[in-house]
TrEMBL record:
PANTHER family: HTH-TYPE TRANSCRIPTIONAL REGULATOR RUTR, TETR-FAMILY TRANSCRIPTIONAL REGULATOR. This is TetR family transcriptional regulator. The keyword Cytoplasm does not apply. Pfam families: TetR_C_11, TetR_N. Keywords: DNA-binding, Transcription, Transcription regulation. Residues 1-29 are annotated as: Disordered. One of its GO terms (molecular function) is DNA-binding transcription factor activity. Residues 27-87 form the HTH tetR-type domain. It comes from the Bacteria. Residues 50-69 bind DNA. InterPro entries: DNA-bd_HTH_TetR-type_CS, Homeodomain-like_sf, HTH-type_TetR-like_transc_reg, HTH_TetR, Tet_transcr_reg_TetR-rel_C_sf, TetR_C. The lineage of its organism: Bacteria, Bacillati, Actinomycetota, Acidimicrobiia, Acidimicrobiales.
Length: 206
C-alpha cells in the first residue's frame, strides 16, 4: 500500500470536484492516479507533467482523471494531501526519548517518502503559485506539530528551558534534514539524529 492511500483528515476541502452522478468512483483508480501523479512529479516536476502521461502511468483514460479533478492543479494538490502520512504522537516520559523516536521517524520518512522526493519540485512551483504555497505551509506545519508538542511537554516537566523560542528550536532540529534533502544529498539517518541531539540538547536543557 502506498502513502497516497492514507489521506489526511482536515486536508481535503476545496480542491476536488463535487460528487457527480453516474458510476461509483473506484478507490483503486483514485489511488493509481494519485500515485502516478507523485511518480511523474519526481521525474519531471509538477510544472513539466501532463495529464496524458499521468493517465498512461495510472492505466486509466484522461477522461477518467478529469471526471475526478477539473485541472492539473487540483489533482496535484490532492496528491500532495494524500501523500502526508500522519505522524504518531510520541510521549515516552522524557524529552530525550521522545526526540529520539520522533527524529528517527522523520529521518526514515525523509529518506524514503514520496512526499519528500518531490519537495524540490514542489518548492520551485510554490514560488509562482499562491495556493500551492499555502498547501506547502500546511505540510510544514503538519510535520512540525509533533515536535512542538514534545518540546512543550518538556518545558512543562522542567526538562527544557522556558525562556527559549520554540519555533527556533524546531528550526534547529529540522533544518539539517531539509538542507541535506534539498542541497547536499548527505545521509538522513540515525547518525544525523545522534549528532543533532548531542549538539542541541545541552543548549536547551536547564
Amino acid at each position: 500500500m502506498t502513502d497516497v492511500a492514507n489521506g489526511v483528515a482536515g486536508h481535503n476541502g476545496g480542491v476536488t470536484d463535487a460528487p457527480r452522478r453516474g458510476r461509483p468512483r473506484s478507490a483503486g483508480a483514485d489511488e493509481a492516479i494519485l500515485t502516478a501523479t507523485l511518480d511523474v512529479a519526481r521525474e519531471v516536476g509538477f510544472r513539466g507533467m501532463s495529464m496524458d502521461v499521468i493517465a498512461e502511468r495510472a492505466g486509466v483514460s484522461k477522461a477518467t482523471i478529469y471526471r475526478r479533478w477539473a485541472s492539473k492543479e487540483a489533482l496535484v494538490l490532492q496528491a500532495l494531501r494524500s501523500a502526508i502520512n500522519p505522524m504518531d504522537e510520541v510521549d515516552l516520559g522524557s524529552v530525550r526519548a521522545d526526540l529520539v523516536t520522533y527524529l528517527n521517524d522523520l529521518a526514515d520518512r525523509m529518506a524514503s517518502g514520496n512526499m519528500t522526493d518531490v519537495l524540490p519540485h514542489l518548492i520551485e512551483w510554490a514560488v509562482h503559485d499562491e495556493q500551492l504555497r499555502v498547501e506547502l505551509d500546511g505540510y510544514v506545519a503538519h510535520r512540525r506539530q509533533p515536535l512542538v508538542a514534545i518540546l512543550t511537554r518538556g518545558i512543562e516537566r522542567g526538562e527544557i528551558r522556558d525562556d527559549l523560542d520554540l519555533d527556533t528550536i524546531v528550526d534547529a532540529f529540522v533544518g539539517p534534514f531539509i538542507y541535506r534533502k534539498l542541497l547536499t544529498g548527505d545521509a538522513i539517518d540515525a547518525t544525523l539524529v545522534d549528532r543533532l541531539l548531542a549538539l542541541i540538547l545541552p543548549t536547551i536543557t536547564p
